[in-house]
TrEMBL record, chains A, B, C, D:
UniProt protein name: ATP-dependent 6-phosphofructokinase
Pathway: Carbohydrate degradation; glycolysis; D-glyceraldehyde 3-phosphate and glycerone phosphate from D-glucose: step 3/4
GO cellular component assignments: 6-phosphofructokinase complex
Binding sites annotated in the UniProt record for substrate: T121, I122, D123, R158, M165, G166, R167, E217, R261, Y267, I268, Q269, R270
Keywords associated with the record: ATP-binding, Cytoplasm, Glycolysis, Kinase, Magnesium, Metal-binding, Nucleotide-binding, Transferase
Role according to the record: Catalyzes the phosphorylation of D-fructose 6-phosphate to fructose 1,6-bisphosphate by ATP, the first committing step of glycolysis.
Protein family (similarity comment): Belongs to the phosphofructokinase type A (PFKA) family. Mixed-substrate PFK group III subfamily.
Catalytic activity, reaction form: beta-D-fructose 6-phosphate + ATP = beta-D-fructose 1,6-bisphosphate + ADP + H(+)
Length: 337, 337, 337, 337
């Protein structure tokens, strides 16, 4: 089952698991529909080999997804879910999901259910794995979009602001910003003040470029928002309405007098054809998850370490998010301005 | 000079004109900076052959652009501009611009200035030419983005709304929507009511898809906005704040109960590497404009007709915009729902 | 039915025809498999609405294709084919094919069969239509590939030769070469001598670039091949073995002493996701072909003229290929060297 | 200096080093032209900040490259090169190169020269680092091309063979083949017999697909070539003329009777815009190399380990290539057929 927000590579995980399991062990697979909803309701589709043909390059998930919680409602909890699995002769449940889903999976595994996990977050903010699939695609799409913004900024002598995904962690902004040569990158982990931003922008502008600012959606302006209340910043340094990118653009324009435009990349970052990197990573994770199930590695998930796929306890991915360390940000910030 | 909003292909026009003029006639070229501002202030750069090397594939314009009007201010008007051209021994001025710039160019040409035009509008809404460069790139980028939205919509059983460029004409929405297989396309020329939109969306949803709606930024909801005032529609059927795409998304969600998300493509549609189609069209227009100048075709512009580049009076592009004919829209609307 | 070499946009034609026919007229559609083979053998699949869902962006053809001739063999000819159509209650046959298939279609229509045509050639060499679908995608893929070759050529101070499709007509080479800024474009219609090529290449090299040569597969070296027999050219100016691009590269290297490399783009030009331009054109052609069938426009095909789709007799596309006129080539050749 | 074959990301390394060095330490940079040739001849260009503006996304190398050896000829060897560096007040030399260049760099460093290295190989076959920049771009381009081949193969019921780079190591074939869902991947490290290949292909064909075979250029047919001598295989299992992909295609066609076509991707794999992944990796390596120079880490190179950039002795990358382990290949081979 696939759970939570969709992510490029989900179908490659499914294909890797199904092909690997069938060819190595003669397994049979079913796919529960729409995440935990399908598990709870026993709603599934058969997954013979033909159903995973050519799906690695498709975005989204052929199984559908939802944000349903495995513990809520009358059908929630280990007893009912265990019954569903047994009724349908499911020997192992593979949960492809983010922190919430893996937490649920962990609780169910602790309650004795035969569950293995595959970590999924487009934001790359799960611990226990070097990278998660989908992240590379999001960074690539973001970089291509920002490359496009740059030519417009330079032609019009404007500041271009791009808001990218990243509610709690700034990995997408950090990587796409580095790749596109941004003059400022603003992430949730490191508050920057309006003065910082204005300095970076003005410096780049004075060298004759159209400055480029990349902002993660979860960025918080590092000072009381009162000074910019009239531009839509609230007291906590967050936007009162709409996205933080728009507010940052307004502040830059008011402070520097340079025309400033914001583009919010939105959902185009998470859909569509995955990069080759994500397809390879996802396929390997899927194959490894099928092996984990055969080894009865309940309560574990498959993860990337260096160039290897290995297993770690589900708990390794829980409790705290993998955010951008200050040192890593400062390394990049050298390039600003 | 390049004037108005930037557009993929501007640099290919410049290169085509410069290489064509140099190789056929031994011409010398200068480029005025930032549109009419540079013309009025006599601010230009020399354009020897080396400066246009490899620029066809660059977005934006190496000359910079602005929205300055050639008639405004103390440096405006034919007398001063004529003096600038003579002072710098400029025998012909090539104006690459949209309706406003070409109108100014036409007035100046009527006043006796040696001016030829190249039509430019990313929205494809200029009369006198089959297509304008930049449009194909905008449609391509829009289509790729909407392809990405589609997989997310289908995985989450959501309606996805994409807002694309097109303030007065719906060509980008029409073409990108057709290419991406949208279930509804909403354009400025043809008001659709909330009932229409909801029917199209619901029908597509009931057939098991994630419905896809493409909205041009200039779309007007075809009924009094009062009914949806609480969702941000004003009395004229326009958004009170933000973009029309967001408002359409809110109306769909309220009326159908299906989760609906909007992405506004924004500036990524107009920057970056032009498609091959636009590079070829722009190169041909640039070469033809250099010939037009040699023929003293003042007051004319170069244009595409079928597979040929020919000349038409600048006035052919003025007075009214080329909008989507109702018959053309209805042809496409057959595919909706 | 789809016949001959595959071409990006075939599926969009099918979808346009099926959706248009169903929604406007309540038609039913079947698709014959693998071109004329399926027609002759009565081998087809039903095409209800769901089967064409989302296929516009898929390369290839869901119906399969072949190079079978409708007149050959015991199952060939109008009588048997007419019987197949009647047996399966097919009221109209839509032939999507190139010159050979359309010639067969024309003969069958003249024999009284209810046939309409859709012109298909990735080389854009059919008369009777401004452009054919698939051509834009081939040019776009070729241009992107040549853009990539260019950076390698410049870094290594090498000449890069790219061989593109075009057996009889040089349209792809002409457009991709213009778009990528080639220093020489060699096409079947216009013989160039080794001296010409060497001059163009040397001139570009001396200005400090990595020269870029685009060669159509059908190019013929315009002099007796004897002088370059040791490099693989035959007496007719064609390669004795392999492609003409390789031979041109060898000649350039021997004559200029500059390291020269050839890449033959091959099949990557004809497969995969169509451009938005091709999807729109193909969808419009498909819809118009369904209308043509309803109007009983037997023996006609749908075609692009300017911005309109109209109908012309199938014979308009036969008898001679649409090759690159000398004047059009010379216009572009101004940019060489 | 950049040395050896060009590789997407070279310019990002240069930019990372220059910006990092200038902003952290106020360094000055020069770039030697065309690899060791420029070093030996003292031929260089100044690299003030403006020269690296926006170059991360450009393929190739702004410095040019060559395959010149630092030890050959009258200008070779440590004494002369040391003199060049001193004459031009170069305190540290950063060598961005492959195994050959790094071996030269190591020898020079052992002779006392102030040299740091950055590992470069598009084939990903250098030891001492998890991945090298350029590899991801080559895999991505290869995957996109193979995706395109697939639709043609399926429409024509043909076998499509793609030959990709990889003379000694099959990493590109392995990753692009996995990403594109190949039915056979043939690499230099693991000989496969014609029987193996034919079985994999036939099995895929029988399941109704157009089989897809990815071959690295260095693949060796695992049996005496005599049996296929008439198809161009030599006794060592290598092609007598041209590429191994063509020979494999001929063998498949003869043995299975299925039409088979080969496309050799060639130089398009190494040029052009780098992926975001490669730009980020290359930028980080460049910045780290500037730091290494400041720390006097002579004889060391910067490398990727997991998510970190660290330093290893140059010797770690020498002596043996990093080839695909048999276990890794067998893991993937499960998916074949």
């Amino acid at each position: 089952m696939t759970s939570g927000g969709d992510c490029p590579g989900l179908n490659a995980v499914i294909r890797g698991a199904v092909l690997g399991g069938i060819k190595r062990h003669g397994d049979e697979f079913v796919g529960f529909r729409d995440g935990w909803r399908g598990v709870k309701e026993g709603d599934f589709m058969n997954l013979p080999r033909g159903t995973v043909r050519g799906i690695s390059k498709q975005g989204g998930t052929i199984l559908g997804t939802s944000r349903v919680n495995p513990y809520e409602g009358p059908l929630g909890g280990p007893e009912h879910i265990s019954k569903v699995l047994k009724d349908h002769k499911v020997d192992a449940l593979m949960v492809i999901g983010g922190e919430g889903s893996l937490a649920g999976a962990n609780r169910l595994a602790e309650a004795g259910l035969p569950i293995v996990g595959v970590p999924k977050t487009i934001d790359n903010d799960l611990n226990g794995t070097d990278y998660t699939f989908g992240f590379d695609t999001a960074v690539q799409i973001g970089t291509e979009a920002i490359d496009r913004l740059r030519t417009t900024g330079e032609s019009h002598h404007r500041v271009m602001v791009a808001e990218v995904m990243g509610r709690h962690a700034g990995w997408i902004a950090l990587h796409a910003g580095m790749a596109a040569g941004a003059h400022a990158i603003l992430i949730p982990e490191v508050p920057a003040s309006a003065d910082d931003v204005v300095n970076w922008v003005q410096e780049a502008y004075d060298r004759g470029r159209g400055p480029l600012v990349v902002v993660a959606e979860g960025f918080v302006m590092g000072e009381t928002g009162e000074a910019y209340s009239h531009l839509g910043l609230d007291e906590a340094g967050r936007p009162r309405l709409g996205g933080i990118g728009e507010v940052v653009a307004r502040i830059i324009q008011e402070r520097t007098g340079i025309e400033t435009r914001c583009t919010t990349l939105g959902y185009i970052q998470r859909g569509g054809v995955p990069t080759a990197y994500d397809r390879v990573l996802a396929t390997r994770l899927g194959m490894a998850a099928a092996e984990a199930a055969h080894d009865g590695a309940w309560g574990e998930m498959v993860a990337l370490e260096g160039t290897n796929i290995h297993r770690v306890p589900l708990s390794a991915a829980l409790h705290s998010l993998k955010t951008v360390p200050k040192s890593r940000y400062e390394e990049v910030a050298v390039l600003f301005g």
